[in-house]
Amino acid sequence: MYRADPRHRRVAILDRHNEPRWHPIWQGNPVIAPPAAVASGEDVQRLVNGPDARPYIVYPFTEYTGWTFNTAFHARENRATIYLTLEELQIGLTAIETYGQFVLIEPWSKHPNLTWPFAHWTALVAERSDLTFIQHIHKDSKLVPGIRTAIDATFRQACALVAVAEVYVRGESGMLHAAAALNTPSVAIWGGCMDWDVLGDYPLEYGLGIAPPYCGKWFACEHCTKLMSGITVEMVSDAIDRQMALTQKLAV
């Protein structure tokens, strides 16, 4: 929107009530107008995107029907830009200085149908002792045995770790979109809940277990449990190697 606008007006992100909203991930972004700028009368462009007003979801829905997806929307065509501060970037650089190159993981998901079995995570770390695994965590995280270290991080601090990781591995989440914004190769342990064509398939993202039609269910379902359990440790390990090779190619 900003680049296409002849006057290069900043963009205000609105909620479903058309009220300006703010999120820490937009900090430092020169093209996003904060609520205070809108309140002061700045001539802005307006974009509705927030809880209950996502462009990739078809409304209405309930927690019982689950989501259906707007197939005209493609996240890869709307890739974000994240502006990290030097202080935030130092978190990632310190991790590199301390532990060397690493693979970043986080198994946690609030969504049962986006969760790879924890035993698989444990087996992956055990079987790939040649790799340094770091896990970024928060209060609900469960530590994977065998990781080199866990780093308690806010969303933006976790982005700093993503920015310097060789590869980022997890189930579908906002952090995978952050990896795309930060040009970090990722392995998406996907499954059959969310629409890969709508929410995935970034240039540096490799998806596993992609299985349409996508159920969009909020509650744990047999379909998703079977798909996620069927994504083997070997599949994820091979995908990490593939993406590590991509990281090396990008560094040349």
Task: Summarize the structure in words.
This protein is of the alpha/beta class. The protein folds into two domains: 1-53, no CATH class; 86-251, 3-Layer(aba) Sandwich (Rossmann fold). Helix content is 31%, strand content 13%. It contains eight helices and eight strands; from the N terminus they run E-H-E-H-E-H-E-E-H-E-H-E-H-E-H-H. It has helices at residues 35-39, 86-99, 118-127, 155-164, 174-181, 196-199, 222-229, 233-251; strands at residues 11-14, 45-48, 103-105, 133-137, 149-152, 167-171, 186-189, 205-208. Strands 5-4-3-6-7-8 form a six-stranded parallel β-sheet, with helices on both faces. Strand 1 (11-14), helix 1 and strand 2 form a beta-alpha-beta unit. Helix 3 crosses helix 8. The longest helix has 19 residues, at 233-251. The radius of gyration is 19 Å and the shape is globular. The two termini are 33 Å apart. The mean pLDDT is 96.
Topology readout:
Layout: E1 11-14, H1 35-39, E2 45-48, H2 86-99, E3 103-105, H3 118-127, E4 133-137, E5 149-152, H4 155-164, E6 167-171, H5 174-181, E7 186-189, H6 196-199, E8 205-208, H7 222-229, H8 233-251
Helix pairs in contact: 2-4, 3-8
How would you sum up this structure in a few lines?
By secondary structure, this protein is α/β, with parallel strands linked by helices. It folds into two domains: 1-53, no CATH class; 86-251, Rossmann fold, CATH 3.40.50. Helices cover 31% and strands 13% of the residues.
